Amino acid sequence: MDDADTLVLWLMAAVAATLVLSLLLQVDNWKRDLFHNEAETSDDASDPVLRPVRIDQPLEQVVEAVRAVANDLRGWEFVDQRWDDEGTLLHFVRITPVFRFRDDITIRIVAASRGGSEVHAHSASRLGMGDLGQNLRNLKELLVPLREELQPPKDI
User: What's this model's pTM, rounded to 2 decimal places?
Assistant: First the structure.
């Protein structure tokens, strides 16, 4: 092996190590993220971002906002939209950039009991026992800009 081949191998190893390290640095709860491969919004979530979005807007308007926000997210693909007596169910697939893993994300938008709408979200990996926190990141990736879209800051 000559010097050029050795250099290429070292560069490939450095790139691989950088990718692995960047993935590992994103994990915020090793106990959960090694053994869980799904995440969902919940009223009692410790992270306020992972609580359902409650908004005083009609269901149809919220559905369009969810679709618009998801459409702008890298790696997200719209799959299906279904309606039932409770509301609307949107299905997206998010494809991770490096390993091309597919996560299924379902968004349920329902009419709130007090008026307006509620957005509930669930993300699940298709493979593996743990997701290294990717499903939580999927939900945050959608819910943060969705809240900004639906609840813009008020001028003081």
Answer: 0.77
